[in-house]
Amino acid sequence: MSVQRLEATHSVDVRRPFTYAAALAGGITAAQLRGPRFRKLFRGVFIDASILPHPLHRVLAALLIHPRHAFASHASAGRVYDAPLPAGLGEEHVSVFAAADRRRREGIRNHVVSAATPVVTFRGLRVSAPAQAFVELAEQLTLVDLVVVGDYFARKGWLTPEELVAYCEDQGSGAARRAAAYVRRDVDSPMETRLRMLLVLAGIPEPVVNFKVYYADGRVRYRFDLSYPDLKIVVEYDGRQHRADLDQWDHDVERGEWFDEDGWRHVPVFSWGIYRRPDRTIERVRNALVSRGYRTGPLSDCWRPHFPVRP
Q1: Which residues make Cβ contacts (< 8 Å) with residue 284, sequence separation at least 6?
Q2: What is the CATH number of the domain that holds 204?
Q3: 219 inside domain
């Protein structure tokens, strides 16, 4: 039976998660819920089986089980915000203000929090405010993954790095405070965050984020992901996603010619330089700095736990 036919027959919207009680009240039988027409998300919560799975379905399903003042937190908050989370954070996290409001289900983890915990409504769901979600995710994410989320929040304009640092100083753990100190404005992608963190954790001077070069009339001519403007060095992650775009190709050729004419050195970094040979990326950037007369100090091994070498 199609979704449209079910909606015509039953009053419950089966395209969204719904409870067992709502199903019975809407004319759906227990036998139908056990059949192939519906998919169980959690015990007592279902959705039409023809609806493609989406992370928000499980978040909404988890909230339906709890009182109305409960809210998505931790990794579930990250999913509501569509943050770039690593794989493997399968449990849904729901925070409540009283122990009696917890609901035990397989796949759901409850947290009892203070009534002062900041909560907002986003995409129609109650969720931890961005800075609070960052603090919560510090319990689940590594340093680099957490900075990726912080840069994403800052890029979206939901908080500033200064606001995040202040909040973590007041409410965060040591892990949250450490990560917040690395969050920057105007970072365009998670891979740019990873590249910057690789260099900084290796003891390479931190590059400038999103440096702009202007035309004489004030228009932006070029914008560099990461750079050392005083040394005229650009370090950029290249995802190769635009190689079939002829306009982008022409732009890249023109920019490369400008690099040569104006004396800039370009260090492109590809995915293998992050996930397979981060040591080579560190070496390439360090060599570029040295070639411009910069004296780098001793390098650190702090990057190694976060960026394993895979020859």
Answers
A1: 267, 269, 273
A2: 3.40.960
A3: yes
Show Cβ contacts of residue 142 under 8 Å, excluding neighbours closer than 6 positions. 306
Query: Which helix or strand (DSSP H or E) is residue 211 part of?
Result: strand 208-214
Residue 92 per-residue DSSP state? E
**Inter-residue contact 83 to 153 (CB < 8 Å):** yes
Tracing tokens 């202007």 back to the chain, one arrives at 214
Pairing of strands 108-112, 92-96: parallel
In DSSP terms, which residues pair with 186 in a beta bridge? none
Q: What is the mean pLDDT of the chain?
A: 92
User: Which ranges constitute the DSSP H helices of the chain?
Assistant: 3-9, 20-25, 30-34, 55-65, 74-80, 130-137, 143-156, 161-171, 174-180, 190-201, 246-262, 272-275, 278-291
Residue 277, exposed/middle/buried by CB under 10 A (0-12, 13-18, 19+)?
middle
Digit-coded pLDDT (tens) for 119-151: 999 999 999 999 999 999 999 999 999 999 999
Answer yes or no: is 164 within a domain.
Answer: yes
- Copy the structure tokens of residue 126: 């109650």
- Determine the Cα–Cα distance for residues 149 and 141; give it in Å rounded to an integer: 10
Asked whether 200 and 301 are in contact (CB, 8 A), the reply is no
Query: Considering 127, 151, 180, which residue would you say is the last residue of a domain?
Result: 180
pTM of this structure: 0.90
Is 17 within the bounds of a domain? yes
3-state secondary structure of 19: strand
Q: If you search the block for the tokens 């990057």, which residue do you land on? A: 303
